[in-house]
Amino acid sequence: MNDNNIPVAKAIFDTTARARKKIEIANFAVLDAVVAMAELQDPLAPAVFGASAETLQKLANMDKAKINALMMTGLPIFLLRVASPEFQAALEGSGSEDALLRALLESYSEQLPITSL
Question: How far apart (Å, rounded) are the C-alpha atoms in residues 27 and 33?
Answer without folding.
Answer: 10
